[in-house]
Design goal:
single chain; Arc Repressor Mutant, subunit A; Gyrase A, domain 2; 7 strands
Amino acid sequence: MHTYVKILQKVASRIAPSRSLSFEIVHVFKTLQLIQERGHVSRHTLCKKLGLGEGTVKTLIKHLKIYDLVQTDRTGTRISERGNKLLSELVFSMPAEMSISKCSVALGNFNYAILLKQMAYVIKTGIEQRDAAIKMNALGATTLVYKDKRFMIPKTNFDALHKEHKLHTLLVEGLNPEEDDVVIIGSDNKSERSAEFAAKGAAIVTIMNHDKHIF
């Protein structure tokens, strides 16, 4: 398994004899993104952006510090050199993401697309990605494989966007997919955040499956 995935798993794991955690790998990933984007971030901001309680965010930051991914001072939490490196490796596998409107291939009022590089051969039917999204308390996820400049339903010759020309153009311009890339669209009716976490959760599961496939 990629080193960065192992580290994410460790951060999101219980440190004995602590209580069960209330955050997931997705929250760790999003926290690092937020800190890198803003330079530094307060616990209050993290609570709001992650939808987590203050105690949970405090534990999350503690775990990030244990693995030397962030540093804290009076201005808030900053990403460390190691955290920047880990995030850059994540972004290499998931280089683009975007919010999209309701459409025929997505399930909810809020939908969020994320691009996975060169992982078409890992995808089976898309059920694993759907289940990963549901575990994030979202409606689910739609998985599309980019083949011959079309967004295909996995293991079929069906172009999922053959009637969605506007969405096809939007995804191509926003995500810049290449042959054998994968697009996962997380969906939910509650919020864009729920849809984003669904997409990220499904993407991380796909990366884990990619590593199992290799080894």
